Amino acid sequence: MTLVLGGARSGKSRYAEGLIELRPGPWRYVATAQAWDDEMRARIAEHRARRPAPWETVDAPRDLAQAIRQGPRGQPVLVDCLTLWLTNAMLDEAADLAAEVDALVEACRGAAGPLVLVSNEVGFGIVPENALARRFRDEAGRLHQRLAAIADRVVLVVAGLPMIVKGDAE
């Protein structure tokens, strides 16, 4: 399992796609984004255009653990991205966010094939001014720590350049 972190437009998704494409296809892309507006629809379209066959896209804005568990044995899986999933869960006012995170961590531990997770590193900025944004930053930080602890590799992408934080380079 590889956890790929980075800021917005850092190149983390392209880097993660490249990691998956080092393995034989078909590849599974688990998308967590929801097209709430035109800008988000354009972002989703851009990501999809980069992934021709043999990529298979599975939309999982909420039940990410199940989408990971459903992957066929040995199939490389890319999840993009964890912070959008966390946003979806928080905006849905998940009854038990901690239980959903636990289920996600367990699904990652039991993944049936290579797994690459993409997420935004949001903890480098200033302290947000409102309680929801502070809670999101804190929940994302805790999620990243839990996943980094079980990951074989953690990579921070800055300006398109991968920096290995944990494990070996692919």
Describe the structure in brief:
The chain is built from six helices and seven strands, in the order βαβαβαβααβαββ.
Structure commentary:
The chain has 170 residues and is an alpha/beta fold. It has a single domain, classed as 3-Layer(aba) Sandwich (Rossmann fold), CATH 3.40.50.300. Helices cover 42% and strands 22% of the residues. It has six helices and seven strands, in the order βαβαβαβααβαββ. The chain has a seven-stranded mixed sheet, sandwiched between helices. β2, α2 and β3 form a beta-alpha-beta unit. α5 packs parallel to α6. The N and C termini lie close together (11 Å). The relative contact order is 0.23. The model has no long low-confidence stretch (mean pLDDT 93).
CATH class: Alpha Beta
Name given to the CATH homologous superfamily: P-loop containing nucleotide triphosphate hydrolases
How much of the sequence lies in strands comes to 15-25%
Give the strand order, joined by hyphens, for the main sheet. 3-2-4-5-1-6-7
Q: What is the CATH topology assignment?
A: Rossmann fold
Q: Which CATH architecture is right?
A: 3-Layer(aba) Sandwich
Radius of gyration: 15 Å
Indicate the percent of residues in helices. 40-55%
- Secondary structure tally: strands: 7
Query: What is the straight-line distance between the termini?
Result: 11 Å
Number of domains: 1
Mean of the pLDDT scores? 93
Which structural category fits the helices and strands?
Answer: alpha/beta
Number of helices: 6
**What gross morphology would you assign?**
globular
Uncertain regions spanning at least 5 consecutive residues: none
Largest sheet: 7 strands, mixed
